[in-house]
Write a structure and sequence with these properties.
The protein has two helices and ten strands. The chain has helices spanning about 5-10, 30-35, and strands spanning about 20-25, 35-40, 45-55, 60-70, 75-80, 80-85, 95-105, 115-120, 125-130, 145-150. The protein has a four-stranded antiparallel β-sheet with strand order 4-3-10-7, with no helix packed on it. Strands 5-6-9-8 form a four-stranded antiparallel β-sheet, with no helix packed on it. The protein is elongated and about 65 Å long. The termini are far apart.
Length: about 150
């Protein structure tokens, strides 16, 4: 029995200058049936980091990384409720973040009310967490979803 193409071919990461061949078996016109396109036309215009963050006491957040095209972000504890995401020249473009207000599992007794992330430099972004009383605080991240996007 023949193997599927995906079983024969080693999977690799697609980058912007790759060329992809699109086969259209329903197109009767031989001139347009098979098309070559640059991968950059199909890739999103940003790099992203998607993770579940947990933080306790004065420890830095720990991350369960779900998807990462930015690079390896290192989280450190800055001060109460403030944490630094560090990646050498990882934040050179416009930085945008989505942060969940509830974790994916039951966590600390005091849920996060809101959080924000701002670009501090081309290599650092700062995450701040606030409790229900609008006070910056620790112990509010418990498998809390975050998506950071960096647009070129």
């Amino acid at each position: 029995m023949a193997k599927k193409w995906s079983e024969k071919t080693e999977k690799a990461t697609v980058v912007a200058n790759d060329e992809l061949l699109i086969l259209d078996s329903e197109d009767a016109n031989a001139a347009t049936k098979n098309k070559r396109v640059k991968a950059s036309l199909l890739l999103p215009p940003y790099k992203k980091y998607v993770a579940l963050l947990t933080q306790t006491g004065t420890n830095p957040p720990t991350a369960i990384v779900l998807e990462n095209t930015i690079g390896n972000i290192v989280w450190t504890y800055l001060s109460t409720g403030s944490y630094t995401a560090t990646l050498a020249n990882g934040f050179t473009g416009n930085v945008w973040a989505i942060i969940g207000t509830k974790g994916v599992e039951a966590g600390p007794p005091q849920p996060i009310a809101f959080a924000n992330l701002y670009k501090y430099s081309n290599s650092e972004a700062v995450l701040r967490t606030y409790n229900q009383q609008n006070q910056i605080n620790n112990d509010l991240l418990w498998k809390t979803a975050i998506e950071i996007r960096v647009y070129a």
